[in-house]
Amino acid sequence: MLILGIESSCDDTSAAVLDDHRILANVLNCQDALHAPYGGVVPELASRRHLQSIVPVVQKALEEAGVSLADLDLIAVTRGPGLIGSLLVGFSYARALAHVAGIPLVGVDHMAGHILSVFLGEVRPSFPYVALIVSGGTSSLFLARDMHDFTLLGRTRDDAAGEAFDKVAKLLGLGYPGGPHVAKAAAEGDGRRFRFPRAWLEEGSLDFSFSGVKTAVLTQLNQQRQGGGEIALADVCASFQEAVVEVLVEKTLLAARRQQVTTIVLGGGVSANRRLREVFAARCQQEGMAFIAPPPQYCTDNGAMIALAGLHRFTRHGADAGDIDVYSRSPLG
Ligand code: KG4
Questions:
Q1: Which of 34, 62, 82, 162 is the most exposed place for a label (fewest CB within 10 A)?
Q2: Is 178 in the pocket of ligand 1 (CB under 6 A)?
Q3: Residue whose CA is closest, atom 14 of ligand 1?
Q4: Is the CB of 268 under 6 A from ligand 1?
Q5: Which residue out of 184, 270, 301 has the highest number of ligand 1 atoms within 8 Å of its CB and is therefore the one to mutate?
Q6: Per-residue pLDDT tens for 176-219?
Q7: Is the pTM of this model over 0.90?
Q8: Counting beta carbons within 10 angstroms of the beta carbon of residue 85, is it exposed (0 to 12), middle (13 to 18) or buried (19 or more)?
Q9: Domains in the chain, start-ordered, CATH in brackets?
């Protein structure tokens, strides 16, 4: 089955063509440079850029896959959650394309795409598994029982993990998006130098909170600046990263133990973080659990995961009616 997947929920325009689970093309137009001067995604700019990129991105995906519109069996598109203006560009285009070409359309939840993106890699999990989805807008834990059944176990109460990385990078005058810059600086630093707070919240809670650690970094930087010495950039980054990684890993392990599952899966842009993968791999080995992360290009927002989630949705529920709409908050939680 040939599926075109279209993703435009935030600041990346992406289109992919899959032949069942086999990826024939996955094209991405990343808007990082556009938003960098503002230190975050500017919704109005994002949707305007999607308007410019959607047609060439889809055309390129079809070309790379060596297929034409008429060959497609299904179009899958992100319905939400995300920025409404951004979502509407990909969604309206996909709906028009499906209508004109007489191809069935399915609307896909972006979170479902991330939860299932691990199936785009070579090592695939068996169900059930616990998925930690960590990006610029999300830090959530899900129990995945099968390709359709996802239960929210915990979520952030304030900043998402990626947002915390971005904000700390901004405090340090590093570039945007901040995650890769902080991670790079952290690689040279001592993660035990500063003991930043770990927000465990109430006993046994699977929710996250990252605003406190960001404030603690600010306080530490202010102290260092007042002291007149040089900012210990690498050590601050490494210590901040340790604090975030420890909470993400330990809460995910707690969720897995509680659900009595032995497989942990990662998804979302922050899962590109090498230290996070390292600590997960080590702790899962200690606990006798399997740990699987998708290849980095499928961690970030991408059309391939939408095509894959769309295929499974279509197989179970068939095509969506023509009157479905986009949404900003996921029904998955
Ligand atoms: O899933 P994603 O590409 O899209 C959005 O949420 O928009 O995630 C982007 C987020 C950003 O906050 C970025 O700083 C973070 O993922 N990120 C990282 C790393 N690479 C990207 N965070 C920590 N370490 C990284 N290596």
A1: 34
A2: yes
A3: 179
A4: yes
A5: 270
A6: 999 999 999 999 999 999 999 999 999 999 999 999 999 999 99
A7: yes
A8: middle
A9: 2-115+300-317 (3.30.420.40), 122-293 (3.30.420.40)
